[in-house]
Structure formats: C-alpha cells, structure tokens
Amino acid sequence: MTASRTDLPADATVAVRHPDAPAPGTVLPAHYAHCFGCGAAERHGLHLAIVAGEGVEVTATFEVTEHHQGAPGLAHGGLLASALDEILGMLGHLTRMSCVTARLETDFRRPVPVGSTLHLRSRADGVAGRKLYASAEGRLGGTDGPVAVRARALFVQVGLEHFAEHGRPEDLEAVARDPRLIGVPDYTVNP
Ligand SMILES: CCCCCCCCCCCCCC(=O)SCCNC(=O)CCNC(=O)[C@H](O)C(C)(C)COP(=O)(O)OP(=O)(O)OC[C@H]1O[C@@H](n2cnc3c(N)ncnc32)[C@H](O)[C@@H]1OP(=O)(O)O
C-alpha cells in the first residue's frame, strides 16, 4: 500500500497530555463560541459537547438530525467529516497545541441514518515538531457499535498571528471586545 501523508513519520514522538489539561470526564470548553463544530453561539452548528478522555483522547456523541441530510434520510458525508475534524482538533485542549487541520483523510464505511447517534472518539497518535498526527472514528448506536466513519489527520501548530493575519476583521474585533468568545486558557503556541 502507498504511504499516506498522514502516516506517522519516523521521527514522531508520543503525544503527551499537558500537565494542566482538563481532567478526564471534563466537557471541554468550545474553543470559539461561533465554531460550527462546538460553538454554542452558532445557531446552525453541530454543538458537539466534547469530553476529555484518558491520555490524549476525547469523545463526543453526535445526534444526526434531518438538518444533516445529504440523501433522503441519510447524513451528508462532508458534514460527518466536519464532526470528525472538530473532535480531532479538540485534542489540542489536551496537548495545549493550537493547531489547524492541514490534512483530513476520511473513510465512510456505512451510511448514517437520520435519527442515529454517532459515538465519536479521537486520539493523538504522535507529534513531530509542529505536526500533530491523530485519528478518529464514529460508531453507530453505541461505543462498541459498528464503525460508520473513520479519519486520519495531520494538524499543524500555529501561533496567534495565524488567526490575526487571516481572520475577518469584524470577527477579530468582536473577540477583542469580548475575549470570552475564545474558550482556551492561553491561545498561544506552547510547545
Ligand atoms: C492552546 C490550546 C488550544 C486548544 C483548542 C484547539 C481547538 C482547535 C479545534 C479546531 C477544530 C477545527 C479545525 C479547523 O477547521 S482548522 C481550519 C482549516 N484549516 C486551515 O485553514 C489550514 C489552512 N492551511 C494553512 O494555514 C497552512 O497550510 C498550514 C498552517 C497548515 C501550514 O503552513 P505553514 O507555512 O505554517 O507550514 P508548512 O507549510 O511549512 O508545513 C509545516 C509542516 O506540515 C507539513 N504539511 C503542511 N500541510 C500538509 C498537508 N496538507 N499534508 C501533509 N503535510 C503537510 C509540511 O510538509 C511541513 O512538514 P515538515 O517539512 O516540517 O516536515
């Protein structure tokens, strides 16, 4: 099989849980109130409540509704990829790396019907410099249910300037006026 760009490189080390990471069982704060994946202020968002696990692992449940359809009665694949992207990115709460998705590879193994509950889990597989490698899965109906979706991802650590340089000015100004819109303790690069 051809090597993938999300395969762990030879120089990768084990991802380490930051000593100040929230305790296992803690519902992680939304990293941004208007985030499509986890923000409470985003009316059309997924509103994922993501829970810290043991090690560098997080979980969430995702209720698939009629608003998530791609085909009649079935979830849209891109939307499922969004849920996986979110649960992968939130590993940053445990490693204290502020990362952005550089690559996301998704396998859709089973259709996901409207009305189903998808049990999501992600874990950090390794770190190489600024790169965080991670994987995730979504199981139907229970934590030991059949795997419907799987993903592997590469996140790249960025500093505050990434957001300051690229974000839309009015949204950055809103954050400056109300820093509580950002739900991370210290939004800086923290190697
Ligand atoms: C503090 C606590 C925070 C906690 C909470 C956080 C929650 C967050 C939740 C978020 C949830 C939602 C998440 C979202 O929705 S994040 C939103 C979606 N993602 C983006 O907008 C990212 C857009 N891309 C970029 O800005 C740049 O391309 C980045 C920053 C990623 C890299 O540009 P930069 O100029 O900085 O670095 P570089 O180009 O030297 O690359 C660096 C290294 O990476 C390797 N590479 C790069 N791309 C790829 C690729 N595609 N496949 C394989 N490898 C790739 C590259 O070869 C190099 O490797 P090496 O040569 O060093 O070996």
From TrEMBL:
Compartments where located: Cell projection, Ruffle membrane; Cytoplasm; Membrane
Domain Thioesterase, first and last residues per copy: 73-139
CC per GO annotation: cytoplasm; membrane
InterPro entries: HotDog_dom_sf (IPR029069), THEM4/THEM5_acyl-CoA_thioest (IPR052365), Thioestr_dom (IPR006683)
Reaction(s) catalysed by this chain's protein: dodecanoyl-CoA + H2O = dodecanoate + CoA + H(+); hexadecanoyl-CoA + H2O = hexadecanoate + CoA + H(+); (5Z,8Z,11Z,14Z)-eicosatetraenoyl-CoA + H2O = (5Z,8Z,11Z,14Z)-eicosatetraenoate + CoA + H(+); (9Z)-octadecenoyl-CoA + H2O = (9Z)-octadecenoate + CoA + H(+)
Enzyme class: hydrolase
CDD domains: PaaI_thioesterase
Enzyme Commission (EC) number: 3.1.2.2
Highest rank taxon of the organism: Bacteria
Membrane topology classification: Peripheral membrane protein
PANTHER family: ACYL-COENZYME A THIOESTERASE THEM4 (PTHR12418)
Name this polypeptide is given: Acyl-coenzyme A thioesterase THEM4
